[in-house]
Write a structure and sequence with these properties.
The structure holds two protein chains of two kinds. By secondary structure, chain A is mainly α. Helices cover 70% and strands 3% of the residues of chain A. Chain A is built from 14 helices and three strands. In chain A, strands 1-2-3 form a three-stranded antiparallel β-sheet. Chain B has two domains: 187 residues, Penicillin-binding protein 2a (Domain 2); 360 residues, DD-peptidase/beta-lactamase superfamily (Beta-lactamase). In chain B, helix 14 crosses helix 16 and helix 16 crosses helix 19. In chain B, 42% of the residues are buried. Classes of the chains: A mainly alpha, B alpha+beta. At the A-B interface, helix 7, helix 10, helix 12 and helix 13 of A face helix 1 and helix 2 of B.
Amino acid sequence: MARSPLSQGLNDNQQQGAKGSLNRLHIDWPLMTGLIALSIFGLIILYSASGENWSTVSRQMIWMCIAFVVMFFVAQIPPYQIQFWTPWVFGLGLLLLLAVLFFGEMGKGAQRWLDLGLFRVQPSELMKFAVPMMVAWYMAEKSLPPSFPRILMALVIIAVPVALIAKQPDLGTSLLVGSAGIFVLLLTGLSWWLIGGFGLILAAAAPVVWFFYMHDYQRQRVLTFLNPESDPLGSGYHIIQSKIAIGSGGIYGKGWLNGTQSQLDFLPERKTDFIFAVFSEEFGLIGVCCLLLLYAYIVFRGLTIAYQAQSTYARLVAGSLVLTFMVYIFVNIGMVTGILPVVGVPLPLVSYGGTSMVTLMLAFGLLMSFHTHRKLITS
Amino acid sequence: MEHSRVKLKDHIRETQLFSNRVVLAGLVVVLLLITLIARMIFLQIYSHEHYTTLSQNNRVNIVPVAPTRGLIYDRKGKVLAENIPTFTLELIPEKIENLEEVIERLRTIVDLTEDDIRRFYKTKKRSSSFRAIPLRFKLNENEVARFSVRQHQFPGVELNAHLTRHYPNGEVGVHALGYVGRINEAELERLDVTNYKATSHTGKLGVEKQYEDFLHGTVGYRKVETNARGRVLRVLEEQLPIPGEDVHLTLDLEVQKVAEEQLRGKRGALVAISPKTGGVIALASMPGYDPNLFVNGIDTKNYKALSQSTERPLFNRAIKGRYPPGSTLKPFIGLAGLEYDVVHQGTKINCIGWYQLKNDEHKYRDWKRTGHGPMNLHGAIRESCDIYFYDMSLHLGIDRIFEFNNYFGFGKATGIDIPGETRGILPSREWKRRVKNEAWYPGETLITGIGQGFNVSSPIQLAVGTAILANHGLHIQPHLGLAVRQNKDSDLMYFEPEVIGTVPIENKSNWDYMFDSMIAVVHGTRGTARRIAKDLKYKIAGKTGTAQVFGIAQGEEYDKENLADRLRDHALFIAFAPAEDPEIAVAAIVENGESGGGVTAPIVRAVLDAYLLQEPDLL
């Protein structure tokens, strides 16, 4: 089924013309509402977590605007063009990753940044959407469920960037990128037997990764996660202080700007990875439930978009991106509450930091593009 | 078309498969969210209390606040011990970039020794962060001024005022007052840990030690909020410390000064007591030392000089000195003789200069080789005739001498309210058997009767005995503490003088007889202390004494020229005045002073003058 990009574009335009002017913006308003609400939520929390620092909040607002603009522009691109450019984006990502490996800048003991003169980029961020797009692109070529050789090939597509990112080393991002790729495979309808088989292989590979592939500080993080009290002033400090912050928040919280754990500096990394602890301390269980409901709303809206997507490629990409978003939430909250090891994963759209926000909004832009460029199917 | 049909079939199957997986994913998402909420419920509801406690412990610190030590006053309200602000140069290392460079620059402004710097680094190692660590104590005015104008060049360096114990009169009264010093390990175990949490000093000697509980006060505390680095952000709650109570002493600073001035250049002690109250008016032991040296730790050089001096300035002779009372014991023995009817007021004995026991060749000599001739007890006291007392003591016997002198407090602790007094020795048969495991010999009774032999008493014991005598037998425990007061506005709480007992004298005229005899010691033309009677405006009853430092062998001449200074007799004098209605009783000793009448009596007279002739109290 050879498709002509041009003819499909015409079809789209005709369809859009029939709809209202709002839809011509290619914005999915239910999703948009959730994202805006979450962003406002995030800014309020950041104001407290930064110690009422307006310059931090305004910098975050600028990044937010950039992120929304990026989302808006991505949403305008028709899905067939996104699909068309996928291998190129992936290729560029791989090249940048290799460049980081050789010319990258060091920061906090890891080589993640590439200085492009005007600004620095983190190519691993690009891979968060480039990898699922590439796997989906590859899978959409042939009918599904995929054959075994194609699954192996897909695994190679996932493994290469994951290995490069892990080498930087950036365990958190490599896990997110890897899971984004795996989600695509799972959504293709991979047989449960195969999933079970790969699971066993992963379990067997874990010790190998532990002994030959992990850095000391990564191993330390896992050990500390297993027993934080063993090192209360060293690596366990983060988790202990974070649990104290959350637990002391109780049902109603200590009130906005009144969290003693966060305002008195007991909580480390409170603007970034541990911002959820600040939020739970100040807003309590009630606030946490509201935040989780908001996240759930966004996730289910995303899954709906994936469900209603019309091409295999769009379905796979959308599903994978939404599930990765959920992984972000689960891993971040899991590590802050002490049920997962501390890996550097930000709380989506709340943690301070521009790059991850732009990446996330770009992903939501893809979702909007898929959803708003649908053709009406008449039976 | 067939190709297309297969495609279509696949498309439906694909969609079906995908839809199943998306629904499954939705279920997994719900599961994950439930997991998170369950975890949050565990932390925020189930463990809420536990983490609230931890969070409180994290941020709230309790900082103890030391109470201000009570002041010490003399009986007229003159300050004997006070707290003065002194400036300490303190550094907060966390606020200083280059510590070594800053200390080097400070050296150009204030005097810094290597010791100061070494101690600073030692303290720094033990302190928690954001604590000010002292570099130099007690800056002088010039240093304070020099640093103050340059303070802006030294961020993280602070000039802090602390209260330091100060004794404005220097060494005057040091043996009564004592001093405070830094709390040491041994004291740390003894003192109340809670109450002394913020206290750095405690009383080490004298009144400062004895009245520690009054002077110290009660610790206060501040509940403060600190951040993760231990920096105090604000005070949440404050309980002010209760300052220590002021202690007023019976000591009279002016009289004390006179006593010490009189003893200057000599080794000796003087204790003056108000017989009616037991209050100690003066307690001097010379030479003394400046207690201010000890407050923040005395340096090795000064301490060596004090502790190794042959003059023993650190030794409190007034309560620890052990001297034979010599002839100053005679009034007490004489009263015993009268009371036990061994002699009568008119009984005469012919003093020929020596005395012998039956069946004993040993000659017990009088201090006057030629003898005093025939004399009664009055004369024997006045001229201090030894022969009279040999004979009387022999008839009294050691048991009655012991029993009677006991009433005057000899051989027992006086109970003076400063630590460390000696009990002295009042010899008895029982004592000799216990200590020397020997029987009592009659010859020993003789020399006990003139205050020699085994007799040992401290100046305070002698003063207490004299006060009891002056008081017609009423024994009141001597004390320095007069009253305490919580603050300037509250009333003085007086200590009740403790009556220990009464000397059982049946015949009251015996007191008058002994008083007259002692008045004759000073005012009689043949009295041993007649030289101090000149221009006296009141009557003194006294008794001189000399105490042999070592025994002189039989038949050996007493050659004072050849005796080293340290082997000369100690010179003693006891007195009370005015004799008709005694207001003050004094005992004094000058080591190796030789003559009680010539050396010690004038010292005592100066003290009596100072007390009795001073301007009426304005208090």
